[in-house]
Amino acid sequence: MRFLRYCEEMASLDVLGQRIRHYRTDRGFTLDELGEKVGVTASQLSLVENGKREAKVSLLNSLAEHLDVELTDLLDSSPPSKRAALEHEWRHATEQPLYRSLGLPDTKISRSTPDEMLETLTGLYDEIHRREEQALATPEEARRANTELRLRMREKNNYLPELEEIAEKLVADSGHGQGAITHREVALMAESLGFHIVHVNDLPRTARSVTDLENGRLYLPPASIPGGHGLRSMALQAMAHLLLKHPVPQTYEEFLQQRLEINYFAAACLMPRTSAVAFLQEAKKDRNIAVEDFRDAFGVTHEAASLRFTNLATEFLDIRLHFLRVGDDGAVYKAYENDGLRLPTDVTGATEGQIVCRHWSAREAFTRTNRTTEYYQYTDTPEGTFWESTQIGTAEGAEFSITVGVAFDDAKWFRGRETTERTHSSCPDLDCCRRPDEHMRGKWAGKAWTSARLQAHALSPLHGGLFPGVSDVELFEFLERHEAPDAE
Q1: pTM, rounded to two decimals
Q2: Among 26, 93, 132, 456, which has the minimal tally of Cβ within 10 Å of its Cβ?
Q3: Domain ranges of the chain
Q4: What CATH class has 2-82?
């Protein structure tokens, strides 16, 4: 039994058969001739060579003797030639669920199959497998990609001038003047690109919008999606894919980059650079910057206004800052900083899913009774003192906080700077807020039980498909339903 396990570790039946065939043909034996020498029929030996039957130890010893090779040579785990390696790789590929899911007919490989064709087949399968793996990103891969993107944007102060230029032109061409962008103006922008906005009730559950390139239709839901995804923003995001000439994303990194760009573009249209900067510069002049004023002036969500503020504050106001979206459990969903605040991170540098200090404004705001206005607070940290403004929001029944903060010296430009709320945080020191008081630990350890709430985080694995995260079946069925003009 120990020897048989050794055989299994050394070579698969497939490779073992290839090596027997290689040495047989190299020595000039036919199946009948070698079978006669080792005491088996040609058909039995053929099954062994094709990897369809195990060989007894006595047969392996006899084969090694008559082929004049060491037994370890027969049991080597590597295919005996490049051709044999290709055959082994292809046979293994066709046994995998991914290959079977393609619905292709069985492709038999014979001695007459050219090496070039076999290389092409295995190469195509390897590429399909690679793309499938990248489409189904693990949470770890997603966090890594998101971290790299956040650091790149930090180097740019979260400002993308090329997208600003495209957005400014689109807005100007729509005839927009001052104030909030209207739904009619968004529709005119879509028409300038050759698309008609259609509101439907049956979008694929995994999609926020669908663009029919063939028939020039941009499908949106009839109402905003919970979580701040307004109809104007969704339409502009769909247009961004067209204007920025995005290809179908092949990697999770490309997917995240495109998502960032379409969100940025939509915000740059809804809060155009020229008027937004003028509004903020006037507020700074009056030492009265407030995200809620910025939000109301352009008719957007608090989160959208906060994120747009991060785009413009450093570039045009000379203010460095940080932004946080935090769940009511303290977990980070979005984060950005260029003001020196140390964000909570894991060992890879990712901040998504990490827990914010209980003493930061992003969590202290949840303890307030009145949540209709912004909450202001100073927080002393190992990196210095920061002033923060936090607003509580609700999406799909769950609360979250949106925080914009700056270093102490820049608080003078903001409304709420006179607040007397002040806390101290020594995180990541465990004694700050993550290690319980020793007295309470001694009192309650082993005397209580709790059940954790299941967390569903934004950076979870995406379902595979033509577009990451969207079901191909639902997408194509939707397009089929709406292909005919009378389907609307």
Answers
A1: 0.70
A2: 456
A3: 2-82
A4: mainly alpha
